[in-house]
Structure formats: C-alpha cells, structure tokens
Amino acid sequence: MVRPRIVDRLRSGRTPARQGNLFDPDCPTRLVLDRIGDKWTVLVVLLLSDGPMRFSELRGRLGRVTPKVLTQTLRRMERDGLITREIFAEIPPRVEYTLTDLGGSLIEPIAVIGDWAETHVHRITAAQAAYDVGQDR
Fold first, then answer.
1. Which of 73, 75, 97, 118, by CA, is between 20 and 30 Å from 54?
2. What are the structural domains, with CATH classification, of the chain?
3. Are strands 94-99 and 83-88 parallel, antiparallel or unpaired?
4. Which distant-in-sequence residues (6+ apart) come within 8 Å of 23 by Cβ?
C-alpha cells in the first residue's frame, strides 16, 4: 500500500508555523479532528453543501437525531466558524443555517471519506461478522 506524502509530513511533525501538530497531545488540532470526526457534523456539512437549511429541514433529512443533539452540534459548528445562523424577523421567527467558506472547505474531504465508506461498507460489515464469530469460540 502506498502512503500519501502528506501522511509522512504529518507524522514527522514538520509543519508550517501556522499549522498544528496532529501527533502532539497538547495541540488543538486534535480538537478540530474531534469536531469534524463527529458523525452529525459530517452529515450537516454534506446537507448544507446544497445551500441554507432550516433546523426542521436538517433534522428531517438527518433522521434519528434528537433536537438537543442537533442543537448542540449546530452551536459547536457555529462557534468553530463552520456555519452561520441567520434569524429572520418573521412571525414565527425563521432561522437558517449556512456553511461559511471554512465549512465549505470541508465538503470535498468529507465527500471523499463518505464515498469511501459507502464503497467499503460491505467489506467492513463482513469483517465485523467474521471477527464476532471468532470471538464466540
């Protein structure tokens, strides 16, 4: 298997001054990875790639997410600068969520990982089933 050069750069810790060091336990880069590794964040980014959406639209498209968890996810994403929240002065008030330029920069890498997951899901579930059978002995 060929390892991309970027992996070597990350592992070496030799990154430009403005970048973090992924393998430094005290580096905030790990917090960023934690955020973008969250399944709801990933799915919200992909949904908002089509344009602004209201909370109820997001919740309906996501399925199986509680209002509390979605609210927490959206607040964290807003705090991280990944989305904006716009309130329209209507009755009842209308709120829309939109990706920022920073959030939009996640679309491509997340789409690639999502495509990989959809392509390999059967191999992963087969490996899990085989492993579980071996654990029953």
1. 118
2. 1-36 (no CATH), 39-135 (1.10.10.10)
3. antiparallel
4. 10, 11, 13
